[in-house]
Write a structure and sequence with these properties.
Helices cover 36% and strands 11% of the residues. It is α+β, with helices and mostly antiparallel strands and 202 residues long. It has one domain: Muramoyl-pentapeptide Carboxypeptidase, domain 2 (2-Layer Sandwich), CATH 3.30.1380. Strands 1, 2, 3, 4 and 5 form a 5-stranded antiparallel beta sheet that branches. The longest helix has 18 residues. 28% of the residues are buried. This is M15 family peptidase. InterPro entries: Peptidase_M15C (IPR039561), Zn_M74/Hedgehog-like (IPR009045).
Length: 202
Amino acid sequence: MGGAMLLVVTPPLLVVGLKEPAAFDFSSDGYRPDRQISVLLTGENLTPPPAPPPEVFATTELEMVRPSVVWASRDWGLLDIQFRQRLLTVFKLMKDRHGYELVLLEGYRSPERQEALLQQGPNVTQAGPNMSYHQHGLAADTAFLRNGRVVISERDPWAMRGYQLYGELAEAVGLVWGGRWKMMDLGHVELNRTGVLGRPPS
């Protein structure tokens, strides 16, 4: 009788003991980060793409959506090193995986420019000087480049698909995507850092 019971109980116990983690385990403990993303984030510093000519940003459409964008800073060197690496990882993967070429519309923003944008109304920004991660080199506004032209329209299905993919990759590298905000900002990403906002940039 004891031998028979052992034969009945042993196989299930062996299965439980030898069972490997489920291939589709979506619990937080079973999360496996994208290997390519991990390699890019911890590897050599990525190189920013060459800047498009200034006239690319001097269009009526762009000016309507991003006031004074022609005067915005697109100097990658003014961005926080960690943030820059994450953003460049997104740029690279958007092009390699999905065929979208991204362009930096604005990175670092001076407190004076932030104040000027605030004065243009809440549809432009609701953040005052030093209350935006832009002032600390921890935020960027981006758009797509198609046939040498900046595409930012939310009425363009191609661009909207791009924003969705952009948001997914941005979040995968640990950035906050403005597309999840109540007042959506689809091209905006930032790296939140405790104790930064409200203090002058160092």
